């Protein structure tokens, strides 16, 4: 059986095309791993890059991305509507085939230590890799964002990183490394400049406010486009379907007399998340290239041929640092 994982690092850069391409390049060309997708947004000032392949190779690619982000991104000069604490803000590992969530959590812990050893950037663990109950939820780790956390770590021991620190890196901040199951990031744009409408809808649908199970949401203004957005993370599409999320937002928008300007899925989406779409127009137009399994099928055979060939020589970096299966 093949061992395949996904990693979806989020970087605090969504405006400079050259920097985004440099991040992709830093994570490319590693035998056994491939970049499947890259999505960027100028208002969020963030890019989401999807990696997949053999666990050690994916981990090495993610580490390369973290290092390149530290070189290129200065959070003291960064602004965007998406919360962030790091140049490489979040690095989640996701089991796909042959590996468990527990193995991904162990990998996250080893990668976190290597981030500190290589780049002197402190690390927080979240999700299934969390070492403290209050850090399971990513939003708790990011509370206060880079600016607030930069001060909090010096005065409150409970906010100190899990690895390194206690001070944040002066320009790269901290990295949140974790393990989780498939997450679908999606956005619904509203044809209005009234941010309060997006925030009310976000409150209606998010689970923490009594809304839909597995849904996190926030309302943000997209100044460059002159509209507002309900930005959503669906953490468990087996509890709440993606179609239900989109339909509920559309219904709530109509209640406020507001039209939906468009929907988007950020990154790749598992095919199972589309099976319950029914006649949802928002999901019927998802292109085949955005379905995770299609992208994996296109790259996995060549990935594992590359990995087999690379085993003839020692694998530099992660493989030699105790990261075998």
SSE arrangement:
Blueprint: E1 4-7, E2 10-11, H1 17-26, E3 33-41, E4 46-53, H2 55-72, E5 88-97, H3 101-119, E6 123-127, H4 138-141, H5 145-155, E7 175-179, E8 184-190, H6 195-205, E9 215-222, E10 227-234, H7 242-255, E11 260-266, H8 281-284, H9 292-310
Parallel strand pairs: 5-7, 6-7
Antiparallel strand pairs: 1-4, 1-5, 2-4, 2-5, 3-4, 8-10, 8-11, 9-10
Helix pairs in contact: 1-2, 2-3, 6-7
How would you sum up this structure, described in words?
α1 packs antiparallel against α2 (55-72) and α2 packs parallel to α3. The chain has helices at residues 17-26, 55-72, 101-119, 138-141, 145-155, 195-205, 242-255, 281-284, 292-310; strands at 4-7, 10-11, 33-41, 46-53, 88-97, 123-127, 175-179, 184-190, 215-222, 227-234, 260-266. It has nine helices and eleven strands. The strands form two sheets. Strands 1, 2, 3, 4, 5, 6 and 7 form a seven-stranded mixed sheet that branches. It has a four-stranded antiparallel sheet with strand order 9-10-8-11. Residues 311-325 have low confidence and may be disordered. The longest helix is centred in the middle third of the chain and has 19 residues, at 101-119. The protein has two domains: 4-181 and 294-315, 2-Layer Sandwich (Formiminotransferase-cyclodeaminase, Chain B, domain 1), CATH 3.30.990.10; 184-284, Alpha-Beta Plaits. 34% of the residues lie in helices and 22% in strands. It has 325 residues and is of the alpha+beta class. A hairpin with a 4-residue loop joins β9 (215-222) and β10 (227-234).
